[in-house]
Amino acid sequence: MEEELRKLVEYAEKDIFACSSPNDLLNVKAKYLGKKSLLSSLYAQMRNIPVEERPAFGNLINEAKKRIEDLLEQQNKVIKENAWKKNEAKAGTDLTMPGIFSSRGGLHPLTIIRREIDEVFLGLGFEIAEGPDIDDDFHNFDALNTPLDHPSRNLADTFYLEGGGLLRTHTSTVQVRVMEKYPPPIKIISPGRCYRNDKPDPSHSPVFHQVEALVVDKGISLADMKDMLSQFASIMFGKDVSSRIRPHFFPFTEPSAEMDISCVVCGGTGCRVCKYSGWLEMGGAGMVDPNVFDILGIDSEFYTGYAFGLGIERIAMLKYNIPDMRILYENDLRMLRQFKGEFR
User: Fold this and answer.
1) What is the pTM for the complete model shown?
2) Which residue numbers belong to the known binding site?
3) Average predicted confidence (pLDDT) for the chain
4) Residues comprising the binding site for Mg(2+)?
């Protein structure tokens, strides 16, 4: 029996070394290790062998099986290596040549600022809400107390679509949808893209980014809004930056205000950036008009709230001293490499 197993291993070795493809190996494996192979039949014969001889007989079969498995694994490595060398020669690969440099991308400055803004407001207890870029007149204008003759509803200012839709002109549409769906208290920000029919210039773009905030609860006052704006300015631009609000008008807030911060370039002493006023305009704000609450089914006698909106491009331009908004959209690597997570 031992001689028979030795010859079996020799035959298997010749067949295995003659294999030149994975399929050949599979066929040889089935021949010598499969269910109908000689080794399998020898296992079945063990019941005919005296009990005292079975351990020795079993060890011989296991050794033969292990030897054949090792040969199969050895030849499989040889076949893979030969195939790799063949492909290498065919492709003309020169392993001595230096590798191709792979540059590492980084975040766009608008993305960096957007994430910083999110982190600031999340730290102040806000939640992030998002909505569709394509909306309708009700959510973009009617629910925000905007009259039909308001200039913003003109074709010259808003992108209208076939079928009655439009590209949202602000992310206030998200605030409307949140107030429709959830009862107070509400404390959210709504960052995202906005669209207006503006000709590109140093301070305007037909596509831009806003982050708007909405707080609705019992006893919310103008002082709460001013305090929140002041906290945001100091966290975003540094403790040396102060903020103020001044009267303005928006259809959806009453009273309304504009938010300013002290110039981040000159520190408030006056320069070309702030037009020698010492202040930079940041965005609009105000107490939510009771009419908006009434339209959306919120009891304006019971709840008050404030809202404000800030331009993300505006904040990026101030923080990074970018003089022209169009630079943010030109994808000039000389500019983009200057930021954290730059191309390497």
Assistant:
1) 0.68
2) 254
3) 88
4) 254
